[in-house]
Structure formats: C-alpha cells, structure tokens
Amino acid sequence: MPSSIYSSQPYHLLAYGTLLGSNIFQTFFNGPLAFKALPRPQFATLQTTIIPAFFSLQTALPVILALTWPGEKIAGLGNAVVRRGDGVSGLLRHGHGEADFFWTALVPIAVMFGSAAVNLIVLAPWTTSIMKQRKHQETRDGKRYYDPGPRSDAMQKLNTSFSILHSASSIVSLVGTGYMIYYGFVLADRL
C-alpha cells in the first residue's frame, strides 16, 4: 500500500482530475453529441436528468479541493514530506508573510465552486422551469417550440427567456472552466 494513501495530496489530485474531466466531457462532448444524436424531446429529458447531478458534482468537488489543498512543501525527510499551509487554513492565510495562496488557489477554487453553485441553485432550475412552461405552451399552441412558422407571443417570450438563461449558464460554466484550467497550472507548480 503506498504511503500517500494517508496524505491529502492524492485526493486533491483525484478531485481536480474528476472536476476538470467531467466538465470537459459534459460541456464539449456529451452535451453537443447528444443534441445532434437525439430528437429534441429526448435530449431535453436526458439533460434535465443529467444536469442536476453534473452541477452537484461540480459544486462538491471544489469543496474537496479546498479541504485537501496540499499547501507548500518545506522539507523532505527520507520518504516523508513536511508541508505547511495545507487544507482550508492554508488557503485562508492571506498576507501573513508566508506563502500567499489567496489569488493562486483560493480565488480559483471559490470561482469554480461559485460558478457551479449558481448553475445548480439558480440557472438550471430556472431554465428547467422555462422548459416545462414551453411544453405546456406547445399544447396550447398545437405546435412545438422549434417548429417553423409564426409562434405565439407567449412562445416567443419563453424561447427568448430560455435562450438568455441557457447563454448565462454557458457563460458561467465557461468562466468556471477557465479557472479550472488555470488551477491546473497552479497545481502543477505544487507537485
């Protein structure tokens, strides 16, 4: 059994890998490919099922990153490594004369957490609500929201609301992705 099993560093690395990997997969592969491969109603059902679990994972993993922050390696004693400033307390040491991880680690982890939490708590439920309203409006109008031709004013408003919310969610996710990639370089310096 490797001695690192009792250290927080491998868990930090696994959490980061899962965070970035799941984000890249869902954002750039799963979502777009499913949209192309599935009829719209089935795609909507799939996304409505996947998105809450995805954003829950994306919200939980930055918390694990903060809890397992590796800090600063200050010495090596044989196979043992001595670290300082690990965990959340190390991330919160801003301006205390020691290594300052505020901008390089705490802010990126906080942005990753915040972007996923905003999507999980606000944007995804709101978007799902608009999708349900749009489904009811389809029944009233007798045509699907994406059918060509004139649309009712109510459907136009719902489509516009959906587009705005989906765009906002995408932008928030891309900000989180940018910070994930930046944090990968920060993490590489720590190893």
From TrEMBL:
Residues 14-136 form the TMEM205-like domain. The keyword Membrane applies. Keywords: Membrane, Transmembrane, Transmembrane helix. It is found in: Membrane. Its main location: membrane. It comes from the Eukaryota. The chain crosses the membrane at residues 12-29, 50-69, 101-126, 164-185. InterPro entries: TMEM205-like, Xanthocillin_Biosynth-Assoc. The keyword Transmembrane applies. GO terms for cellular component: membrane. Pfam families: DUF4149. This is TMEM205-like domain-containing protein.
